[in-house]
UniProtKB/TrEMBL annotation:
Top-level taxon of origin: Bacteria
UniProt GO molecular function: iron-sulfur cluster binding; metal ion binding
UniProtKB keywords: Iron, Iron-sulfur, Metal-binding
Protein name (database record): Aldo/keto reductase
A Pfam family of this chain: Fer4_9
PANTHER family (UniProt xref): D-THREO-ALDOSE 1-DEHYDROGENASE, OXIDOREDUCTASE
InterPro entries attached to this UniProt entry: 4Fe4S_Fe-S-bd (IPR017896), 4Fe4S_Fe_S_CS (IPR017900), AKR2_Oxidoreductase (IPR053135), NAD(P)_OxRdtase_dom_sf (IPR036812), NADP_OxRdtase_dom (IPR023210), TAT_signal (IPR006311), TAT_signal_bac_arc (IPR019546)
Keyword Iron: yes
4Fe-4S ferredoxin-type domain span: 419-448
NCBIfam families: TAT_signal_seq
Length: 464
């Protein structure tokens, strides 16, 4: 691109106003991210966001100076497709968010061919291409989930298309996407038997990939086996799920984050953090937990505790957040401009908070949408997220003897019909289980659909 097409700092300051920026509410738009995330986690008081206080971490492998806040591009705002079929990314909103992020020091952007119905890479590339290439680091993934893309030809095609979509000649951080799903056999078919690891290592040698790593969801056995390839592959970084609940209390087949982090630190491999908010569940907490957090730091958001926890670990290079709305971005900028690391008492406090969170039996859905589309039209994330929301709000009362049963029953049923269209609700699940192999949290989705549907039918039939 010609230099004249870049956005200058002067134009930025004209657009944003000189000096620091003050938090304001953003316009509500549809998003490919979590419905629960639409409830803002912004700070309760207006505070100035400095332009030059972002905390940075240095990648000891290559001296990259990376912002501790990384932009996860899985949850860009969406608008109806003019063709009338589905949705597309709202490019104007993406441009505005990326402009604001870059001006306030964010320089790491993480995307994938699988995000936002396949539109994320193109939208991210279009927004970033207006800036000099040295102003940002771009991360994307070999998201060859479907067996049809496991072939060498299919995987290489996906790899080359990422360069085209992102409008770059070099990818700074390239990941094998979500290893662990399906066990080591699936990993071998996706990356080893087709020669893709060897191919990507050669691409790194040629300079088209600067750092090669993987993102992980799965069992300890798979993690250990893939990490053992370090001497052969030399993993430059690894992306793990880390937050103050998963640190010691990971759900399902997932591995506690303290183990993952310790193994990477032993090998001097930088960690990149995903899901610091557990798919929004650590920003939309039950009221008494919210009050507990706000009592400690009344001027800061509930979400800021989770981001401070993730960023306080020294081997973390950056913490990814899927910031759909401007208020999410602004709040996280406040947390990391600069980061105030946790002290020993804070760690104890958050472990106690995690223990309280475990008393709420939410389903570990992070709204990644890897399970979608459902061949039978079910809005799987919508169903699970509504259930979780009602659990946190105390609206999953199972006995008509409970004092608040009438209120909870009404709230659950009305909210269910409002958030999930009737034809896309859990009762349409036939149990085909095609979704299960794609779920990074190892949720038995058909079983949960049946359980939720049985609960809904029970509520409908209950005579009050």
């Amino acid at each position: 691109m010609k230099k004249s097409n870049y956005i200058s700092r002067r134009n930025f300051l004209k657009r944003l106003g000189a000096g620091a920026t003050t938090i304001t509410a953003a316009a509500a738009v549809s998003a490919c991210g979590s419905k629960s995330d639409k409830i803002s986690a912004s700070a309760s008081t207006k505070r100035e966001i400095p332009l030059d206080k972002m905390t940075y971490r240095t990648n000891h492998n290559n001296s990259d100076r990376v912002s501790i806040l990384g932009y996860g591009c899985m949850r860009w705002p969406m608008i109806p497709n003019p063709s009338g079929h589905g949705e597309i990314v709202n490019q104007e909103s993406v441009n505005r968010l990326i402009d604001f992020a870059l001006e306030h020091g964010v320089n790491y952007f993480d995307t994938s061919p699988a995000y936002c119905q396949g539109y994320s890479e193109g939208a991210t590339g279009e927004a970033l291409s207006r800036y000099p290439r040295e102003k940002y680091f771009i991360a994307t993934k070999l998201s060859n989930f479907a067996p049809s893309t496991w072939s060498r030809e299919g995987s290489i095609k996906m790899y080359h298309n990422s360069f085209k979509e992102l409008r770059v000649d070099v990818i700074d951080y390239y990941l094998l996407h979500s290893i662990g799903n399906g066990g080591i056999e699936t990993f071998n078919r996706r990356y080893v038997e087709n020669g893709m690891i060897d191919y990507l290592m050669k691409e790194r040698e040629a300079g088209r990939i600067r750092n090669l790593g993987f993102s992980f969801h799965g069992t300890k056995e798979v993690f250990d086996q893939v990490l053992a390839m370090h001497e052969q592959v030399h993993w430059d970084f690894v992306q793990i799920q880390l937050n103050y609940v998963d640190w010691r209390h990971a759900s399902g087949a997932n591995v506690n984050a303290d183990y993952l982090y310790a193994e990477l630190t032993k090998r001097n491999i930088p960690a990149i953090v995903m899901e610091p908010l557990l798919g929004g569940r650590l920003s939309n907490v039950p009221e008494h937990i919210m009050m507990r957090l706000k009592q400690q730091r009344p001027d800061e958001s509930v979400a800021s505790w989770a981001f401070r926890f993730a960023g306080s670990h020294e081997n973390v290079l950056t913490v990814l957040s899927g910031m759909t709305y401007m208020e999410h971005l602004q709040d996280n900028l406040l947390t990391y401009s600069p980061l105030v690391p946790l002290n020993e008492q804070d760690y104890i406090f958050l472990e106690e908070t995690a223990q309280l969170m475990l008393q709420y039996p939410t389903i570990p859905c992070n709204d990644c949408k890897y399970c979608m589309p459902c061949p039978y039209g079910i809005d799987i994330p919508g169903v699970l997220l509504h259930y979780n929301k009602c659990v946190n709000e105390g609206n999953v009362s199972r006995s008509s003897q409970d004092e608040n049963y009438r209120k909870a029953r009404r709230a659950f049923l009305i909210g269910y019909d409002r958030s999930v269209p009737r034809l896309r609700q859990a009762d349409h699940c036939i149990g085909c289980a095609q979704c299960n192999e794609h779920c990074p949290q190892s949720i038995d989705i058909p079983a949960e659909m049946q359980r939720i549907n049985n609960f809904v039918e029970q509520l409908k039939q209950q005579t009050l």
